[in-house]
C-alpha cells in the first residue's frame, strides 16, 4: 500500500518556467509534509516542509501548497533554473512512524 | 560538522553472498534510519534504530537486518543476496526528538550479479 502518491515521474521545464510536482496522501493522521531534493550521487536533503495547519509555505523560489480537504500537496519551483535539476521526493510523517516517501520526480530544467 | 558517512560507497556481490554496510551518523544524532532506493520504487524504509534498539521496521524479508552500536554507528546486513537487492542503500540520522528531519549520507550502491 503506497501511502504517498507522487506525480509526475519526470518533468522537463524550460529555464525561467514554473515546475509543479504533486503528491496525494491517504492517511489523514499525517501531520508533517516535507520535500526532499536529491542531486545525482548525493543523498536526499530536506528542501522545505509544511504542517497541515497552513495552506502555503514559501521559501525563496520554492513554495508548498497544501489542500487538507483534498489530501494533496504540491511543490512549486518558480523561475526554474538548470541548477534545480534533481530528483524531488515528497514525504509524510506522523507520530513515531518513519517518514513515508513518494516515488520521486526527476526534474530537468533546460536552457 | 561532518555529515553522515556511509561505507563502502560501491560494491559488487554475486547471488547468495552476504553484505554488510556501515553508517556513521552526524555527531550527537542518536537515531539512524536505513532506506533502500531503486528507480522504480523510490525510497523504501528498512529500519530505524535509536540507542541500540530497533524502533521501527519496514516490510522487508528477514534477510535484511541491522544493528546500532553504543556510539550510534549502525550497520545493516543482507544475507543470501538476490538480483533484486541491487539498489542504493541510504542511511539517515536525526536528533532524538527531530525525527522528521533526516540527514542522509551519500549511500552505498550495491550491485548483485
What's the topology here?
The complex is a heterodimer of chains A (111) and B (113).
Chain A: E1 4-7, E2 10-14, E3 19-25, E4 33-38, E5 45-50, E6 56-59, E7 62-67, E8 72-77, E9 86-92, E10 100-101, E11 105-110
Parallel strand pairs in A: 2-11
Antiparallel strand pairs in A: 1-3, 3-8, 4-5, 4-9, 6-7, 7-8, 9-10, 9-11
Chain B: E1 5-7, E2 10-13, E3 19-24, E4 31-38, E5 42-50, E6 53-57, E7 64-68, E8 74-78, E9 87-94, E10 103-104, E11 108-112
Parallel strand pairs in B: 2-11
Antiparallel strand pairs in B: 1-3, 3-8, 4-5, 4-9, 5-6, 7-8, 9-10, 9-11
Q: Averaged pLDDT of chain B, please?
A: 93
- Contiguous runs where pLDDT drops below 50 for at least 5 residues of chain A: none
Tally of strands of chain B = 11
- Classify the secondary structure makeup of chain B into a structural class: mainly beta
Average predicted local confidence, pLDDT of chain A? 95
Query: How would a textbook summarize the main sheet of chain A?
Result: 6 strands, mixed
- Helix and strand run of chain B: EEEEEEEEEEE
Q: Low-confidence parts of chain B, pLDDT < 50 over ≥5 residues? A: none
User: Beta-strand level of the residues of chain A, as a percent range?
Assistant: over 45%
Query: Helix share of residues of chain A?
Result: under 10%
Rg measurement of chain B, Å: 13 Å
Number of helices of chain A: 0
Helical amount of chain B? under 10%
Tally the beta strands of chain A. Answer: 11
Oligomer: heterodimer
State the major sheet of chain B: 7 strands, mixed
Overall 3D shape of chain A: globular
Q: What's the end-to-end separation of chain A, in Å?
A: 38 Å
Q: Could you spell the SSE succession of chain A in H and E letters?
A: EEEEEEEEEEE
Please give the most extensive interface between any two protein chains, plus how many residues each contributes. A-B, 22 and 24 residues
Gap from first CA to last CA of chain B = 37 Å
Amino acid at each position: 500500500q503506497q501511502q504517498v502518491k507522487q506525480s509526475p515521474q519526470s518533468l522537463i521545464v524550460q529555464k525561467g518556467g514554473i515546475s509543479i510536482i504533486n503528491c496525494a496522501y491517504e492517511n489523514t493522521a499525517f501531520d508533517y509534509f516535507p520535500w526532499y531534493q536529491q542531486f545525482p550521487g548525493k543523498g536526499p536533503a530536506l528542501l522545505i516542509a509544511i504542517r497541515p495547519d497552513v495552506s502555503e509555505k514559501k521559501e525563496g523560489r520554492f513554495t508548498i501548497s497544501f489542500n487538507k480537504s483534498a489530501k494533496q500537496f504540491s511543490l512549486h519551483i518558480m523561475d526554474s533554473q538548470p541548477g534545480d535539476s534533481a530528483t524531488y521526493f515528497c514525504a509524510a510523517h506522523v507520530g513515531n512512524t518513519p517518514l513515508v516517501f513518494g516515488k520521486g520526480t526527476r526534474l530537468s530544467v533546460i536552457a | 560538522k561532518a555529515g553522515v558517512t556511509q561505507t563502502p560507497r560501491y560494491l559488487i556481490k554475486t547471488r547468495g553472498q552476504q553484505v554488510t554496510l556501515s553508517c556513521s551518523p552526524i555527531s550527537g544524532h542518536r537515531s539512524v534510519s536505513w532506506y533502500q532506493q531503486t528507480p522504480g520504487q523510490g525510497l523504501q524504509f528498512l529500519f530505524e534504530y535509536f540507542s541500540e534498539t530497533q524502533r521501527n521496521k519496514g516490510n522487508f524479508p528477514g534477510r535484511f537486518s541491522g544493528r546500532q552500536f553504543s556510539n550510534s554507528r549502525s550497520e545493516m546486513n543482507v544475507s543470501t543476496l538476490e538480483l533484486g537487492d541491487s539498489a542504493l542503500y541510504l542511511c539517515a540520522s536525526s536528533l532524538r526528538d527531530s525525527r522528521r528531519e533526516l540527514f542522509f549520507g551519500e549511500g552505498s550502491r550495491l550491485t548483485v550479479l
